[in-house]
From TrEMBL:
<feature type="domain" description="ABC transporter">
    <location>
        <begin position="261"/>
        <end position="505"/>
    </location>
</feature>
<keyword id="KW-0762">Sugar transport</keyword>
<dbReference type="GO" id="GO:0005524">
    <property type="term" value="F:ATP binding"/>
</dbReference>
<keyword id="KW-1278">Translocase</keyword>
<dbReference type="InterPro" id="IPR050107">
    <property type="entry name" value="ABC_carbohydrate_import_ATPase"/>
</dbReference>
<dbReference type="InterPro" id="IPR017871">
    <property type="entry name" value="ABC_transporter-like_CS"/>
</dbReference>
<keyword id="KW-0067">ATP-binding</keyword>
<keyword id="KW-0547">Nucleotide-binding</keyword>
<keyword id="KW-0472">Membrane</keyword>
<dbReference type="GO" id="GO:0016887">
    <property type="term" value="F:ATP hydrolysis activity"/>
</dbReference>
<feature type="domain" description="ABC transporter">
    <location>
        <begin position="8"/>
        <end position="243"/>
    </location>
</feature>
<keyword id="KW-1003">Cell membrane</keyword>
<dbReference type="InterPro" id="IPR003439">
    <property type="entry name" value="ABC_transporter-like_ATP-bd"/>
</dbReference>
<dbReference type="GO" id="GO:0005886">
    <property type="term" value="C:plasma membrane"/>
</dbReference>
<dbReference type="InterPro" id="IPR027417">
    <property type="entry name" value="P-loop_NTPase"/>
</dbReference>
<dbReference type="InterPro" id="IPR003593">
    <property type="entry name" value="AAA+_ATPase"/>
</dbReference>
<comment type="similarity">
    <text>Belongs to the ABC transporter superfamily.</text>
</comment>
């Protein structure tokens, strides 16, 4: 690997936002055929660095060299021309178009309807085979799984001639099996001479696929070394700059008390009118974390939206402290004592153009002490925000910047701070640690357990089985909108949960595992 030519160099990159240096003299060197991980805490400056490589931002100073040539990457189109491709975390495919149409869209000069779809389909098929992607170019984007959609995004960059592919948290939305497949695809790409820059907070993934890792701490690149022989613990320590605990969250056995919230035969339809949650009943108890495990798209989002009043229920009841809250307005449900850390922080969590302080006050601004006699007290709002920023270690210049300027992980911490500060009896945490670094994950898990120990009922919805097993006391598995089994966290296994997630009943799953 050390003999392979250097395809990308970033030299002494500085990126300044006003007074703040998000990148402070960063150096990065990537070789041909290398999988190069970029590791850093939330807000360390990884996305800012990659945005300069993909033409979205310009460095304040420093140089970018592609194949030894100093270059200015002043637009995404220029980045594409230079062979730099970004595999986005949020897939941007049009459901009604075929895979080929999605890939060709925007990358070919189209003369009227003269687009040669036949040739494109053939080219894409060839690329798919060459890189082991196994994508059907004629499938409709709306009909393919999340993992397959990601492969289409990869093909899109290859079709445009990318030699350097940037993957930003690529496994966040994948099932364990899809993650393995993606790792193989990355290895395949590298073996074919492509270079990959991998941004991830998952140390195991770095260990599994990366050759080299560059560590960024508070805007500075502090080290770069081969991954071989380095443990996950060492990676975590270097990233944070001190020794961090990678062990399970400490917790005592749960002491479940009275039922706080009950779902009684709840049925919910999705936006297309298809039944997403079917006749679902569950009880959430004070002093207990009930985990909802399942593959993305099995009714979890609709279930949460129905409980929080964001979408109507088709039938059944939601009962909080013995009172029906079914189909009440979101604000009434919030007021009744439901906190919600949403899965999609941009759609439901934050107003990106408003200040961080205003966002932290979003659920309580109209009440004392943030308002007095109907007038907002900005001193109180800002002070309240400063307290929570400190308590939850939200990394920001101050409370007056826009929420949109925070790094992804710090946006998430701000929402968690706001929702947990409200002293609600029922807390919904949906994918609460997606995109967070190891230190922040540990902190958030502990916070959820503290809430439990303070007598709250916590609903933890997560695709991450490690997270569910670590934090939840009981686990309900959802598949196609129905609960396939409810198990105690300390009496189950990933294998058992995996079979329940695939739709088996608990008896079937146990029979299968006993027979193995
Ligand atoms: N447009 C901007 N204006 C002001 N500050 C910004 C802007 N963009 C980023 N920052 C700041 O730069 C720092 C680095 O952010 P960046 O998004 O690069 O971090 P990151 O390492 O990608 O974090 P994460 O893992 O949370 O995604 C953060 O403190 C962020 O608030």
């Amino acid at each position: 690997m050390a003999d392979e030519p250097i395809v990308l160099e970033m030299h002494n990159i500085v990126k300044q936002f006003g007074e703040f240096r998000a990148n402070d003299d960063i150096n990065l060197q990537v070789r041909r055929g290398q999988i190069h991980a970029l590791l850093g805490e939330n807000g360390a400056g990884k996305s800012t660095l990659m945005n300069q490589l993909s033409g979205l931002l310009q460095p304040t100073s420093g140089d970018i060299l592609i194949n030894g040539q100093k270059t200015i990457v002043d637009s995404p189109a220029k980045a594409a021309e230079l062979g730099i491709g970004m595999v986005h975390q949020h897939f941007m495919l049009i459901d009604a178009f075929s895979v080929t149409e999605n890939i060709v869209l925007g990358s070919e000069p189209v003369n009227g309807m003269n687009l040669n779809i036949k040739k494109a389909t053939k080219d894409i098929q060839k690329l798919s085979e060459q890189y082991g992607l196994d994508v059907d170019p004629q499938a409709l984007a709306g009909d393919i799984s999340v993992g397959m959609q990601q492969r289409v995004e990869i093909l899109k960059t290859l079709y445009r001639g990318a030699d350097i592919l940037i993957f930003d948290e690529p496994t966040a939305v994948l099932t364990p099996q899809e993650i393995d497949e993606l790792m193989n695809i990355m290895r395949h790409l590298a073996a074919e001479g492509k270079s990959i820059i991998l941004i991830t907070h998952k140390l195991d993934e770095i260990k599994a696929v990366a050759d080299q890792v560059t560590v960024i701490r508070r805007g500075k690149s502090i080290d770069s070394f081969p991954v071989e022989g380095v443990s996950s613990q060492e990676l975590a320590d270097i990233m944070v700059g001190r020794s961090v605990s990678l062990y399970d969250t400490a917790k005592t056995p749960a002491q479940p008390k009275e039922t706080v919230l009950s779902l009684e035969g709840l049925t919910v339809k999705d936006s297309r009118g298809v039944t997403a949650v079917k006749d679902l009943s569950l009880d959430f108890k004070a002093g207990e974390v009930l985990g909802i495990a399942g593959i993305d798209g099995n009714g979890q989002s609709e279930l949460i939206s129905a409980i929080t009043g964001l979408i109507p229920t088709a039938s059944g009841k939601v009962v909080l402290h013995g009172k029906k809250i079914t189909n009440k307005k979101p604000r009434q449900i919030t007021e009744a004592g439901v906190a919600h850390i949403p899965e999609d922080r941009h759609r439901f969590g934050l107003e990106l153009d408003m200040t961080l302080a205003e966002n932290i006050a979003l659920q309580t601004y109209y009440k004392r002490p943030l308002s007095k006699t109907g007038v907002l007290d900005y001193n109180a709002i800002n002070k309240h925000a400063r307290d929570l920023i400190e308590k939850f270690d939200v990394r920001t210049v101050n409370e007056l910047v826009t929420a949109g300027s925070l790094s992804g992980g710090n946006q998430q911490k701000a929402i968690i701070a706001r929702e947990l500060d409200r002293d609600a009896d029922f807390i919904i945490a949906a994918q609460p640690t997606r995109g967070l670094d190891v230190g922040a994950i540990e902190y958030i898990h502990q916070q959820l357990i503290n809430q439990r120990d303070a007598g709250k009922a916590v609903m933890l919805v997560s695709f991450e089985l490690d997270e569910i097993l670590n934090v939840a006391d009981r686990i309900a598995v959802i598949s196609h909108g129905e609960i396939t089994g409810i198990v105690n966290a300390n009496e189950t296994s990933k294998n058992e949960l995996g079979l329940l997630m695939a739709g088996m009943s608990l008896d079937q799953a146990r029979a299968q595992l006993a027979g193995e």
